[in-house]
Predict the structure.
Amino acid sequence: CIISQYAAEMLQGSALVLCMDVGFSMSNSAPGEESTFELAKKVLQKFVQRQVFAETKDELALVLFGTDSTKNPLDQDGQYQHITIHRHLMMPDFGFLEEIENQIHPENEQADWLDAIVVCMDLLQNETNKKKFDRRNIAVLTDLSTEAKADHLDVIIKNLQEAGITLQFFLPFTMEDSEEGGGDADRGGPGHPGAGKGPTREQKNGLDMVKEIMQCLDEEEGLDEIYTFRKAIEQLCMFKRVERRPMAWPCQLTIGSSLSIRIVGYKAVSLLLKEKLKKTWITIDAQTLQKDDIKRETVYCLDDDNETEVQKDDIIQGFRYGSDIVPFSKVDQEQMKYKHDGKCFAVLGFTKQNLVHRHRFMGSQVIKIFAPKDDEHAGVALSAVIRALDELEMVAIVRYAYDRRSNPQIGAAFPCIKRDYECLMYVQLPFAEDLRQFTFPSLESKKFTPSDTQLSAVDSLIDSMMLVEKDENGDYKDMLKVHHIPNPAFQRHFQCLYHRAVSPGSPLPPLEPWLKAVLEPPEIITERCQAPLEEIKRKFPLVEVQKKKKLKTSAQIFEEPNDKEAKADEEEEYNLADIAGGSVTSVRQLTHRIEQLLSNKNTNYYMKSLKCIKVFREQSIKVNKHSMTLISKDEVQGSTVSKNEANQVTH
């Protein structure tokens, strides 16, 4: 798929020249719509972004044509004018992205796009003759508005073939638009600006030359390398993660003690964890932006007044066991590790596939198991195992250990037979400790039993939201291709990273519309489920229930609280004076409760005890109709007030 397919091949080492038209015709656009130049620049930016974030080791160059000035080694005798080599072959970086963002602008001249290709060929020949590349490619982004001179077209094609240089073209219209004479792909039709005119005569002539070149370079698939700008943007908008060569895991598949088959494992599915992205973050100096200017030191100190420093050799690990900490030295930790014989893929037994439930799958990877390419006997033996499992609808339960340092796992090896290959698919299964057993009450309730019409409404909603549909042959196909949906966190991460690199002072951009659309249900599903949803609202009316607040009595307040009630009670305020009268009939009871409150070492309980004492005194005055005095030595041993002094102060 356009440059993105090419990018995958670039892992082997490739050289690419991006050849972009910046002439004045590229600035044409319908009112309020993006110009052809802006679309071409987006293709350029998004491809270079993918290359930078994928950390390829390949080299890119940029040639501009239609520039006001001329800067290329073929500039002699008035030939190859208005063509500029902006960047020579080198690995892409953020500096290149900044140049594209800030230095590439539409200019006021026009240049022959065939001359630009010749300059790109010369650049590739001169800058790759001492280097080894698996592929050399030129990607041309133009609107073909300038009449190209076809005098030396045959020579150009011959030189491209001899040098092994491939071409790709990115245009504002499709080949079908040229043949039909209708509106072009990027300027006409639904959703595109400037509907109506279609390609000009110069553009049609230029497209005929492009077809001739591409068919001469590759008769069967040459025309597949001609794309529109918008199609390219759609396919390049997704950031690619760093491409890595698949790492083989050689091992022996053992069945019992006498049968052993050589195998090689490859990760087919591996979770891109957030922790993996964290590994790329480093701490740098805010002024110099250099990692080497920062030095990290870890110091251990005792929790005492002097914060006495403790040497690293005097520290050991401790395992929290309940309220105690059990110390473990490095020797203990080494001896505690589970010891086994190293990497293994041993079959423990076989079982029916329907007994290995999908909801029990766990782990962060799926491993495909093949026989080595150079071992015919292993291939025959493994094929026999795979086909036997497939015919009997069985799976192998295996013991898997990656190496001597890793803990063993238990998993299931499923047979997988495709048109081009066959293999075993290993998926990790849980141990007993990994299983979680939950008991929930039954959903069936006599009080809330759904009616037949309610059940029918829910069935209709489920049917309307089915993510499969029948094609013209009557076969079911997926409407939502999950394996094509990118991780939004990953995409957002690199979107912000790119923006911050090229625009350090501006706020981060909002989520890109295409990514937001990916996270929404398909439009056809949204439309289909509207009527069933309205039916659900009618069949299941919602009624707001108002909860009445209950007043607490003193008996409820003074009950012995449990832990949860006590915690909730700490934040609750109540007026004891409002409920004391008539509810507290026993002086002993209230005294006992006050003592209980004081015995709790909590400020809230202490303040409550003061409120109780205050109400106790006020109610005592009302009940006894006597004045209240201070507490004397005769009443409480800790008091410093004599009986005469206490009687002098009355309430």
Remarks:
- The first helix runs from residue 2 to 9.
